[in-house]
Design brief:
disordered N terminus; two-stranded antiparallel ribbon; TIM Barrel; binds S-adenosyl-L-homocysteine; single chain; binds iron/sulfur cluster
Length: 420
């Protein structure tokens, strides 16, 4: 069982217990998943290797772990045969536990996962012609309570660890059968007949990652950063930062660090252009208003016309979808001179939601107004609605509650927000 009651979430809000980066296992072995190379080397030193050997072994193990997806030390063929059992008695390479896997009629896949200490969270894979996108969770639940989001009706149970975050990407590669095969560290003689010797990295299904699953990634900054560094590491999963997008509801003080320390694409859940409406539907707006948010976007390190910031805008009938809203959106994006694209998301319903989706005509009209002002504003096709895998539908079923309970939780969260 994981050791969750020991470490508070750093910095902000309530002291919610969170798993340490290394949680003790019942069998006394240490799980290496989620650890960077230097940390693995430190553990090898602690276990008895000298510094030079530890560094070499860490480099080898890191490569097998993150680049090749190997979970057994016995399969690490460039590590001496006698060394492999030494590793296996002290360490393991884990994976999040899969509780359920669902397949949508449109090809979207959703996995329900469980942490060692028994909390459920979800990840979603969305294939289309051009790319395959994995939607990754950063927290179990969410402290924020955007009124249109199902995850927002959950309490925050805890932050996910780097291993639990990068573990989602590892599991997706496992499920899609996408680990490079063969022994790329060896020169294989042409006539060896070894069919597994070819290293193939191209033609993958999983090409992009979006931090748009459960939770607010910038409220779990350190763990998300550490996990994404493993995903981007050329010796690791080797995914380009240009293929990774982090979505935030607007945690303004963390946005610059996100650009500086992670460097991925930014998506911002704007959803409304007036204080009145954004305060209601994205309540973090009461803390960091629209002007502050857009200024932080203008200052976002690395944003340019070649790397635009995505503004997500959920289309809610008679709430935020008028012509005037569309024009105000254009005015604001111009005022802050933002390299922007707008993603219009038709509202995905969930049981007990108090909103309806705007009509297709309204969405089209809104999109046209923005588009005619020279800003790209595609309408995102909902994916995986039949298995509750679409944006904002993620919520672990174990925690489903009644409408009355939802109202009570919302009121409770509201009081928490007001008290901050
Ligand atoms: N917490 C982060 C990332 C996760 S949500 C954030 O809020 O940005 C990913 C996107 O889905 C966000 O833009 C979110 O506002 C949107 N979303 C949430 N609920 C939705 C719903 N019911 N229908 C459509 N989009 C929704
Ligand atoms: Fe949390 Fe994002 Fe949902 Fe808001 S939209 S409640 S920030 S997961």
């Amino acid at each position: 069982m994981s050791d969750t009651a020991l470490m508070p979430i750093p910095g902000q809000i309530d002291p919610v217990p969170v798993a340490r980066d290394i949680t003790p296992r019942a069998d006394g072995r240490t799980d290496l998943l989620g650890l960077p190379k230097v940390r693995i080397a430190e553990l090898f030193v602690t276990a008895g290797l000298d510094a030079k050997a530890a560094k070499l072994r860490a480099k080898q193990v890191f490569h097998w772990l993150y680049h090749r997806g190997v979970t057994e030390f016995e399969a690490m063929t460039d590590i001496a045969k006698t060394m492999r059992p030494w590793l296996a008695t002290r360490f393991v390479i884990g994976r999040p536990e899969i509780i359920e896997a669902q397949h949508s009629i449109d090809g979207t896949r959703k996995w329900l996962l469980r942490t060692d200490d028994g909390h459920d969270y979800e990840m979603v894979f969305i294939p289309d012609e051009a790319r395959g996108t994995l939607c990754v969770s950063s927290q179990v639940g969410c402290t924020l309570n955007c009124t249109f989001c199902h995850t927002g009706t959950m309490r925050l149970v805890r932050n996910l660890t780097p291993g639990e975050i990068v573990g989602q990407v590892m599991l997706a590669r496992d499920a899609l059968g996408e680990w490079p095969k063969g022994r790329m560290d060896f020169v294989v003689p042409e006539d060896s007949g070894d069919e597994e010797s070819e290293y193939t990295a191209d033609g993958r299904l999983l090409t992009n990652i979006v931090m748009m699953g459960m939770g607010e990634p910038l409220y779990n900054f350190d763990n998300v950063r550490d996990a994404l560094k493993l995903v981007m590491d050329g010796d690791g999963l080797a995914l380009s930062k240009r293929r990774i997008t982090l979505s935030t509801s607007g945690v303004v003080p963390m946005m610059a660090r996100c650009g500086e320390e992670i460097g991925v694409n930014l998506a911002v859940s704007l959803h409304a252009v007036t204080k009145l409406v954004r305060d209601e539907i994205v309540p973090i707006n009461r803390k960091y208003g629209i002007e502050q948010l857009l200024q932080a976007c203008a200052d976002y390190p690395g944003a340019s016309n070649a790397r635009r910031i995505t503004f997500e805008y959920v289309m809610l009938k008679d709430k935020n979808d008028s012509d005037a809203d569309a024009r105000e959106l254009v005015r604001l994006l111009r005022l802050y001179d933002l390299p922007a694209k707008v993603n219009l998301i038709p509202f995905n319903p969930w049981p007990g939601a108090i909103y309806e989706c705007s009509t297709p005509e309204r969405v089209k009209r809104f999109s046209n107004i923005v588009f005619e002002a020279g800003i790209s504003a595609p309408v995102r096709t909902p994916r995986g609605r039949d298995i509750d895998a679409a944006c904002g539908q993620l919520k672990t079923s174990a925690q489903k509650v009644s409408r009355a309970e939802i109202d009570r939780l919302l009121a409770e969260k509201q009081a928490e927000m007001d008290a901050r």
